[in-house]
Amino acid sequence: MVKPIIVGAHYGFRDWLLQRITAVVMAVYTVLFAICALSMADSSFESWRGVFSGSFMKFATFLCFMSLFFHAWVGVRDIFMDYVKPTGVRLVLHSVVALLLIGYAGWAAQILWRL
Description:
- The chain is mostly helical.
- It is built from four helices and no strands.
């Protein structure tokens, strides 16, 4: 009996689908943000603060950031898995990117909810 050699993670369809879903979330948010920006009377600090004072816009912005971070994670992870062959180096790169993205998520939450 020949045992097949499995190489890579083979995330396949799940990651492809999640990439598309996160891209749609970011596209919808971009349209929403553009409508808000174009409908403001002036572009003063107070106007921008008013846009982000509501819970909906804070949540939508945070959802967009989470989608962006997950989208980036899947893309960078796949690039590392395809092109970085030494396992130790790949593990370090994965860890650094994951920690950075988690830190960016916390930073985004702090910025959004301190307004």
